[in-house]
Amino acid sequence: MYVVVVASECAPVAKVGGLADVVFGLSRELEIRGNAVEIILPKYDCLWYDQIWGLTVAYENLWVPWHGGAIRCTVFFGFVHGRKCFFIDPHSDDNFFNRGIFYGHYDDPERFAFFCRAALEFMYKSDKRPDVIHCHDWQTGLVPVLLYEIYQHIGMGHQRACYTIHNFRHQGTCGEDVLWGTGLGDPGRYFVQERLQDTFNLLAINMMKGGIVYSNAVTTVSPRHAWEVRNTDLDCGLGGTLYTHRDKFSGVLNGLDYEQWNPETDPWIAGHFTAEDMAGKAEAKRALRERFFLRDADVPLVSYVGRLDSQKGMHLVRHALFYCIENGAQFVLLGSSPEPDTQAHFRHLKGQLNDNPDCHLEIGFSEQLAHQIYAGADMIVVPSMYEPCGLTQMIGLRYGTVPVVRSVGGLVDTVFDVDNSDRPKAERNGFVFDDVDFAAIESALARALKLWRDKPKAFAKLAATGMAQDYSWNVAGEHYLDIYERIRAK
């Protein structure tokens, strides 16, 4: 099968969040399975160009229709760790992708609307006719709209669109200028609830909604999150549209890159280990304590790795920190916050606890330190308010670090409570709590710490169970190929 992925990110060359990891990981899995995959990205000036091999011009003088005229683009080609990537570079006074950052400008909807039109124009002019065009998040929501309103009538009638939503909070709402810019025109046709009109602002179009309405298949990043956005306020206003298009909507759990996250070969950890032989994990724990100046004692080590923002349940993280210290455990944290008040709070907390031999807060982010914490900790807390998929708990499982999670989103699909799950005991791999109050996380942590102290063999078996489970891209790749085959047959 021939698949073209259209996205605003791809790890490691253009990465803001998990979207980038999905684009890279899924593309590689599809290629491993014998499919032809190409990725189309904007040519940002802030790309990690040292991660692109053989960058060269692939198509010159691509004239992309825009506001009744056209903008000339150059399309570059290069390999990103083996992935075939095309980068669209518009030559325009609008300076769409030379801003020094990926997102965050007032005209982001116009920038990515242009990118949608340019990606399809490139496919059309270069005679690329993929079986499936796989688009991601609001930035590419207009690709299915343009495909079926314009390009199917001029030679791309057999292409099918799969649309994956990673984050429902950001939907790409904007005015009718985008319709005129991309050549869709006719606001009367699109400013209706059945097409692109935003649910809350009737004077705005919603690019994500367009992707849902016009694509052949819509997915989000876990089965549980698919249920949540259909049945709770996590839909961010798109619940009605998802209900209308429910027959083509599903949740596919993201995969984890098992090459990048591998305790058998990880170059950044002190001891290597497997589910059958976990002796190296003790060495990783010792090295982590030494790195963070923690006392060397026979006590459990609990961790948190990730953004310090409200979505992640920071009041529960803070409470877990003090609960662990007060109950004879150690706690390490790695992360930074996009929220100034939260960042300041945790910096103050770091100063307050700086001399505590059972606690270390690292405010910032380091890939190397993240690997070392995953490998060296006994447990990891993930008390999210919502979590569409989540990689933290999957990485914890991969490294034998038992997750303590709240029962939301992808956490429900990957972590099964050792005491209360309806799963077979051989599949139970962590501790789960439901509520958002302190008592809930205390209850889960108390059970985890008690098992570590009272039944060390049972705790070690629980960790090994998590390591043995497969949350690689292998499973997700198979699901997506099934979706591709289904929509290609229509």
Descriptive account of the structure:
It is a single chain. The protein is α/β, with parallel strands linked by helices. The protein has 2 domains: 2-255 and 474-488, Glycogen Phosphorylase B (Rossmann fold), CATH 3.40.50; 279-470, Glycogen Phosphorylase B (Rossmann fold). 37% of the residues lie in helices and 20% in strands. It is built from 17 helices and 17 strands. The protein has helices at residues 18-32, 108-125, 142-149, 177-182, 187-190, 207-214, 223-231, 239-244, 279-291, 314-326, 340-352, 367-376, 392-398, 409-414, 438-454, 456-468, 473-488, and strands spanning 2-6, 36-42, 53-66, 69-80, 83-91, 132-136, 160-165, 173-174, 205-206, 217-220, 249-251, 301-305, 330-335, 359-363, 379-382, 402-406, 431-433. Strand 13 (330-335), helix 11 and strand 14 form a beta-alpha-beta unit. The longest helix has 18 residues, at 108-125. The protein starts with a strand and ends with a helix.
Residue share in helix: 25-40%
* CATH class descriptor of the largest domain: Alpha Beta
Q: Count the E strands.
A: 17
CATH topology of the largest domain: Rossmann fold
Could you describe the largest sheet, including whether it forms a barrel? 9 strands, mixed
End-to-end gap:
15 Å
Shape: elongated
